Automatic annotation (TrEMBL):
Name of the protein: NAD-dependent epimerase/dehydratase domain-containing protein
Residues covered by the NAD-dependent epimerase/dehydratase domain: 3-222
Cross-referenced PANTHER family: BIFUNCTIONAL POLYMYXIN RESISTANCE PROTEIN ARNA (PTHR43245), BLL5923 PROTEIN (PTHR43245:SF58)
Organism whose genome encodes this protein: marine sediment metagenome
Signal sequence annotation: none
Length: 323
């Protein structure tokens, strides 16, 4: 198997690169800076210098394309569309212009592209998308760019919920709260979310390359059951042997903190983990996705319990002095 990988230096992409190597794949990774490989350093892969908007000459015999590159956090709203929409369009145009005909292209998208769930009803792949943040809107546009080519290439899109695991920095902030003995809660109402451990996600990405699927298929990927923020925090607290005290953050206070972080990020040109877009996502009552389609058509089944996934993530954070 010859695989082209975008986003390989990132959290999810680096895990996928390791899995593909375990499957004896020959990997061609698109990287901006060959001298800053991050988690790819030391791996036996071919480096293609460039980015989604400046794609170099690609091997003509690529079997599979795993497009997992994407921007999840930015101090400039326009950047989301530049990377997630225009970058995806550029990738497909380059494949087409270079007359490369992979067996399948697997694109990683997000539940944010379809929007939150309302009244506790999980969102399905067939639901009309109602994204509420610039990130979600840009991911939806990225899906649209990919699907323009579904008659040319076999394309599969995975919509992931909140992803956590070793190397992730977003959930790290939450773990730091737990380590201090605090269980943060936004507002007075319980909030629920679908989750996916990164190793389950990359298994699903690989599974898509091996299944016969109709071009243009979209799948929600993650745990079958949603969890509340409290449940996740309590399991993390148990893993750290911490007795937790709930810290309620009123929505107006949370909004103010996010606004300040947003403004600071723009001034410093360094995005904050918490910004207005992230806060808007966090204040929703539910980000719950229906996973039945992936189970039926992909035979996808998460291999990690939430407790085991949290423990493995915690162990990695501690080993690398992140926590």
């Amino acid at each position: 198997m010859k695989a082209l990988l975008t986003g390989g230096t990132g959290f999810i992409g680096s895990h996928l690169a390791e899995l593909l190597l375990d499957k004896s794949a020959e990997i061609f990774a698109l990287v901006r800076d060959p001298h800053n490989l991050k988690w790819l350093k030391g791996l036996k892969i071919h480096l293609l210098e460039g980015d989604l908007l400046t794609i170099p000459s690609l091997p003509s015999d690529i079997d599979y394309v795993f497009h997992v590159a994407g921007l999840t956090n930015s101090s400039d709203v326009a950047d989301y569309y530049t990377v997630n929409q225009q970058g995806t369009a550029s990738l497909f145009k380059s494949l087409h212009d270079q007359k490369i005909l992979p067996k399948k292209i697997i694109c990683l998208s997000s539940i944010a592209a379809v929007g939150p769930s309302f009244d506790g009803k999980p969102v399905q792949e067939s639901d009309v998308p109602q994204p509420i943040t610039p990130y979600g809107k840009s991911k939806l546009r990225g899906e649209t760019e990919a699907l323009k080519f579904k008659e040319v290439y076999p394309i599969v899109i995975l919509r992931a919920p909140a992803i956590f695991g070793p190397r992730d920095k977003d959930f790290l902030q939450y773990f730091k709260w737990i380590k201090r003995g605090a269980l943060p809660a936004i507002g007075s109402k319980q909030r629920y979310m679908s989750l996916c451990y990164v190793k389950d996600l990359i298994s699903a990405l690989y599974l898509c390359s091996q299944k016969e699927l109709e071009s243009g298929e979209i799948f929600n990927i993650g745990n079958q059951n949603p969890y509340s923020y409290d449940e996740f925090g309590e399991l993390a607290g148990k893993a750290m042997d911490k007795k937790l005290k709930k810290v309620r953050i009123p929505i107006p206070i949370g909004y103010l903190v996010a606004l300040i972080a947003d403004i600071t990020g723009r001034i410093k040109k360094k995005p904050s983990i918490l910004n207005l877009g992230k806060f808007k996502q966090m204040r929703q009552r539910g980000w719950i996705a229906d996973m039945k389609k992936a189970k039926e058509k992909l035979s996808f089944q998460p291999q990690y319990s939430l407790q085991d996934a949290i423990q493995e993530t915690l162990n990695w954070y501690l080993k690398h002095n992140w926590l």
